[in-house]
User: Which sequence fits this backbone?
């Protein structure tokens, strides 16, 4: 059993809850990740069970959770596709189904909502550990019950999980109140550079190599900064530019809906989702900023070629 | 009908939902605030109904929502206490009840949870406007379903409100993604100054008058910055120091539980709640910082006199 590469709260919480739930029914389960678990999620109950090693004797049945296409299994894809039975449990709307059986419900806010429903249907008695994982899954994928996918089913499932022993405050503290001081300082260095296009629709912030040094920060400390950029009133696109050690510029993009930033990032050799994407540009920083901000701005104006014109 | 001074999402959302709900039953309702509505909440449906003027003929019945003691009604207190009947609907645990009838349930995560239950009991058919206000009330008072007060009742009530037409994403955008650019820049100026005590238990950030000028920010743009300070891993107390135009230093304090920052602030002539408080100190900034950080640190060590020793 596995989930997608670069897993987040919904992927890991769903995988762990399904592992613990099926084990409680007497099944033998091997939860496997293509890459080591991101340390941010190590607090989730059962996280120590996750390995990057497939069992020497492969099981008869595989389950992939929250994978929008089998390619999202990463290096595990060939092994999973070779299993006699492979079940695809997902909530993405793309239609990239796979496996010998699939249960894809795009009305679900999170894969965790489906796993909760499945385990309930199987008669699993939810333990606090299962409940904590499923609350984390639904809570993170709905942006803490904020995004447009926040539906009654997600909220009712979360209510059942709290009743079963989930502790939302521990998830909150571990995911949102556990930032290294250098990362918080780096966020400061970024936000103070905030600029907007004249029409206020594109906002961006920049991190020079000097800013990383001033904050005592690593490249990985940029996590979460783009989310702060997107808190600006009235914007459609938020971008964070971070100068890398080799002089290239890593850009993270967020959209509130009008622009498909995955398409924009693709024009610069990157990729992602319509509302969250990234790409790497050649330096120096001012030129990279001008190019990508200009392309984002043109995409908003709906000019011919929009983001693609900058290719 | 009114709520407390310095009202936040739970106060205003509960007041507006109760107004709309009772009106739907044919009652005449006057929702009044002691001071003008904070602009942040003007997007809530029915907010235009709120005034600071009592009706010329006072009604027979008053309702106070989310008021921890009648003093929280501010300048409206005398008028409300003079009404023939006054109902106190609240969820604070202090025991400061008042009025001719009271319904105080500290197990409720938010006053909005009580109002939802009341209106449901009265047979009100929830409109999307009522639902939006109640979702906002419960969502904000649970920290977006993150704090330890997040219970199954709050989540189930929120689920009913989404079913009745609440749109969480609009609340999220208006409350958390509508910051003026200058306020975001000011947050940057603050966070880059982040410091911690050697034991990592107290974190603080400072805003000089120069920082306000560099960000092009007003004094009111500090809102939300202390919440960013408290995202630092492992801290118990977070403090934001902001130099005022007159040279005094405004300090905002947050605690994760071990220290009662209201008591700490009181020692410096301020006040607040055990986990969120504020005070104003004489300048200059370095001395003010040293005094309050020192007092917070001593309070954590449990030294004799803790916060009070600095009085």
Assistant:
């Amino acid at each position: 059993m596995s989930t997608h590469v670069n897993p987040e709260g919904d992927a890991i919480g769903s995988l762990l809850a399904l592992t613990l739930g099926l084990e409680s029914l007497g099944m033998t389960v091997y939860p496997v990740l293509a890459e080591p678990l991101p340390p941010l999620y190590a607090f989730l109950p059962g996280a120590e069970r996750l390995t990057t090693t497939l069992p020497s004797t492969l099981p008869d049945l595989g389950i992939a959770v929250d994978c929008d296409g089998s390619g999202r299994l990463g290096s595990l894809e060939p092994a999973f596709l070779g299993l006699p039975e492979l079940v695809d449990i997902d909530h993405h709307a793309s239609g990239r189904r796979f496996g010998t059986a699939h249960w894809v419900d795009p009305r679900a806010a999170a894969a965790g909502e489906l796993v909760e429903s499945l385990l309930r249907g199987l008669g699993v008695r939810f333990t606090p550990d299962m409940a904590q994982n499923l609350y984390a899954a639904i809570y993170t994928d709905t942006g803490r019950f904020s995004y447009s996918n926040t539906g009654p089913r997600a909220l009712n499932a979360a209510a059942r999980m709290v009743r079963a022993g989930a502790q939302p405050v521990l998830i909150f503290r571990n995911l949102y109140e556990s930032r290294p001081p250098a990362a918080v300082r780096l966020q400061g260095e970024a936000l103070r550079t905030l600029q907007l296009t004249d029409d206020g629709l594109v906002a961006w912030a920049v991190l020079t190599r000097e800013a990383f040094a001033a904050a005592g920060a690593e490249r990985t400390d940029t996590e979460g900064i783009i989310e702060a950029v997107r808190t600006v009133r009235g914007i459609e696109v938020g971008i964070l530019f971070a100068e890398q050690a080799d002089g290239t510029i890593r850009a993270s993009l967020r959209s509130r809906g009008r622009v498909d930033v995955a398409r924009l990032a693709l024009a610069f050799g990157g990729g992602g989702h319509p509302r969250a994407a990234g790409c790497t540009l050649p330096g120096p920083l001012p030129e990279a900023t001008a190019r990508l901000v200009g392309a984002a701005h043109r995409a908003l104006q709906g000019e011919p070629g929009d983001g693609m014109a900058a290719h």
Remarks:
- The radius of gyration of chain B is 21 Å.
